Amino acid sequence: xxxxxxxxxxxxxxxxxxxxxxxxxxxxxxxxxxxxxLLLLLSEVLYAVRTSFQISVWIEALFGPIDSWxxxx
Amino acid sequence: MEPQSVTQGQLFKLFALHxxxxxxxFMLNIMLQSSGYNAPAGIMSGAIxxxxxxxxxxxxxxxxxxxxxxxxxxxxxxxxxxxxxxLFIALSNLMIAIINIWExxxxxxxxxxxxxxxxxxxxxxxxxxxxxxxxxxKSVFRAAEGLFFISLLSFLIIPVVVSENFEWFSGKGMITxxxxxxMWPSAYYTSSVFGEMxxxxxxxxxxxxxxxxxxxxxSSMIVSSVVVILHVVPLLLIFGxxxxxxxxxxxxxxxxxxxxxxxxxxxxxxxxxxxxISIFVKLGFIVFIISLILARSCRLKDTKPFVFxxxxxxxxxxxxxxxxxIQFKSMMSGGxxxxxxxxxxxxxxxxxxxxxxxxxxxxxxxxxx
Amino acid sequence: xxxxxxxxxIAILLCIPAMVTGCWSSVExxxxxxxxxxxxxxxxxxxxxxxGIPLTNRLIPGFTGGTGEGGGQxxxxxxxxxxxxxxxxxxxxxxxxxxxxxxxQTHSIILGSRLAKQGIAPILEFVERNPLLRLNTNLFMxxxxxxxxxxxxxxxxERFLASVLNGYIRNDxxxxxxxxxxxxxxxxxxxGLIPMLSFKTVxxxxxxxxxxxxxxxxxxxxxxxxxxxxxxxxxxxxxARLVLGQLKRYIYSAPSPTDGRNVGFYTSSxxxxxxxxxxxxxxxxxxxxxxxxxxxxxxxxxDLRKQQNIELLEKEINRIANxxxxxMIAKTRKSGADVFNFGHYLSVQYPKEWKTIQQDWxxxxxxxxxxxVDSVISLRRLGSSTDSFHNKLKVDEKEGxxxxxxxxx
Lengths: 73, 369, 409
Fold this sequence. Notes:
Shape of chain A: elongated
Largest sheet of chain B: none
Strand content of chain A: under 5%
Structural class of chain A: mainly alpha
Number of domains of chain A: 1
Number of helices of chain B: 13
Distance between the termini of chain A: 44 Å
Radius of gyration of chain A: 19 Å
Oligomer: heterotrimer
Radius of gyration of chain B: 21 Å
Largest sheet of chain A: none
CATH architecture of chain B: Up-down Bundle
Number of strands of chain A: 0
Structural class of chain B: mainly alpha
Number of strands of chain B: 0
Order of helices and strands of chain A: HHH
CATH superfamily of chain B: Amino acid/polyamine transporter I
CATH class of chain B: Mainly Alpha
Distance between the termini of chain B: 42 Å
Number of domains of chain B: 1
Shape of chain B: globular
Number of helices of chain A: 3
Order of helices and strands of chain B: HHHHHHHHHHHHH
């Protein structure tokens, strides 16, 4: 859990330094920080519930019927 | 971003590498289980089907070869449809990358790096891929160009060294037991892999001589399907359909089947290393597509800032996507590939709407003086 | 300020080697026990598993402890444990060995006949599921309790029994059955022939260096993974090897059609084709084997310069080959074991008919399958001389010894 936070923080700092060096628009900074935060939250949530919930369950539920209809029907 | 920096040769090599490494490394088990003797026929038909998806994508791209689909797409379908569809494509590419990394760490921890935690493998793969992509589209294609011949050689060497174990008569089964019904599942699964060529739509402005793109795509399809069939047929001839469908990693068992005593029989780790790198190149392309979608949708100048976060998310996602091998298998045959096919068919929708719009516009122009 | 990015890079570079994945699960070579040979048997107290592990500290002759014993100690250790199941026995062995048991170098598995009678399916399953054990691991069988025979047997030609077995397989001297052959198809899964090894105990008074005590002898028939009472003799096993296309350089003798005296041959099988056919009564297979033969010795007065005599000889050895083939196949049919996987050939050629007989395939094989044998042996070589010694020098039978070249396997 903490490792994920550290990984994202490292990436964030490195990218922000790169952006600052290239003197990019403020908008770019904002987009980067927002997307990083979103991804971080999503990663932490998924990791925290990884034993009880998996993404694959949703995918199977959504696309499974189409798949079986195509293959078997 | 550098326009017109990718040659057609590089495109051909990237897609060929992408297709045959994915098929041989990950898909053979499902093919043999669902189709048995009809797997080679299924793979051939699936490859042609996948090429057909890409053809429509190509036609759409050729109408505006110098602008990015991500930009002009919203003029075709309207931005309320365009951006969600783009998000869906990005998500399915994300899933492709996640399950590929999961499968990589599954193979490695079971056979070679027993005891290594998955996060170490996922993060190392992630770092390699992220670094490749961060330097721009050119680096991914350069990597493909460099790897292509060695990778091709390593895939082709295997049928040759195990050829003494073939029972040629079993090959007759491919003709006598031909059945369209049995062939269809592997054709469908193969088309989901070969259809990934339709994502060439996104990188069209980067290509030199865009009109020749379809020729490169066709050559990739032919080379890859030949290589894959050169792997499936030995599996059927040596193990037979019943035993081969029971094996989780038939290609690894094939590698180990070389006659005892020769040094080649323990050569499989070296070949696995080459296969790994080929998968990295493929995933580099996929990560580039995802970051391209995100960057251009936000009207950013380049894709660089997004590469590392996306790769990190992929690496973490691969740790949480499934609980076990069994769940993975049921997911793969229970809908995952359909999600990819839908993503690959989205350009078809755009093409149809675009064609109607063009016809409507030309009719309007013709009717008004 | 310009130093900081460099520090970042150095820091990351230092972290990466720490993540080198090999370090997690690396096991020192010295810390591994490479299993050469797996021996499984059934005893009263359960499954007895013996692992033959070469001892690296004894492999260099003369260095065994610096006391100049002259290689008196065996370079291999046979570790035996018994458990209720194979896995339990394996766990006990691993618990007693200070190194990590590794199966990656295992090429042969020896089975005891008592275990074979009970069923070898657990062994086949273990090999198939284990990622390190290959599917082309060879199977052998020994009659009676295995461990004592193997442990007592010294081998002179090779250091390890496993090398002897590998040599047999490499030189095509023995029927080769792998785990994959036993599991090839569902309809005849578990049917096969497993070569039997014979162990002759070395006479303790014999001189040191006398030939080792292991040899090849016949084959066991397995049906559904269980050994049946019928056993193939060594001659019948060579016919079986002919069917499988494994017979290289086989030496035997046949009576000459002219005077009944023996002529010695060696045969090399080129290829064997098994082709299914269909008649109105049902299905059948034809076994066509093509071999080259040469004459080793002749004690007969047959004139080998005439072509028609050569053809007479060919006809005679063809007849003998066909006869022994049919007898061998009849033996396997009596046991109801489709050891040559004829079912697979039928399924490939006639899939529709195969579907109807698939369920009761073994019964069909036993009673209704038609088997035709067609051997084509071409006598191509006469050796370095043409006339037999007997003919040339007209050795009178009354004087001197009557020497017959009798080279039976």
